[in-house]
Amino acid sequence: MPDHGEAALTEQHGVMQLEVIAAESRHEPVVRRLLELYQHDFSEFDDNDVDDHGEYGYDRLPDYWTDPARHPLLFRVDGRWAGFALVRLGAPNDMAEFFVMRKYRRHGIGLAAARAVFARFPGAWQVRQLETNPAATAFWRRAIPAPFEQDHFEHGPRQRFTMPEVDADV
Asked: What residue segments make up the domains of the chain, in order of their start?
């Protein structure tokens, strides 16, 4: 059963310490602000614009605190916010959104965070990317810790795989 509390997965990467935590409703402002940074970066690929208030917004964000199938996770590096994942559980589980701040990219943080998210929710998964974002496809091909099949959905590549349950006693 996934942990919905403050428990964190902690891993060392060189001198950086990564924590992946289950976001609680009190973390909603942090997730919302990080989503704005994510959408700013992503606008290069999806051509979205800010609204009249200068924000991208994310209509489904409140659902992550009311829908038991949706799980917001936050990443901290050395105690500082570094990114997030929004996961939808189902058949298959879906990495709805995933973001690592630029400062923490290319240090193994995204790879470790992605694998920690997959391990938290064993079972069938899918990860989707836009055709216009080949760097994301290259990242996910490296980050997926199990054999995967790749096909295409409406907007680009999709990887499908099964994450086995990890035996905690080993």
From this structure: 8-163
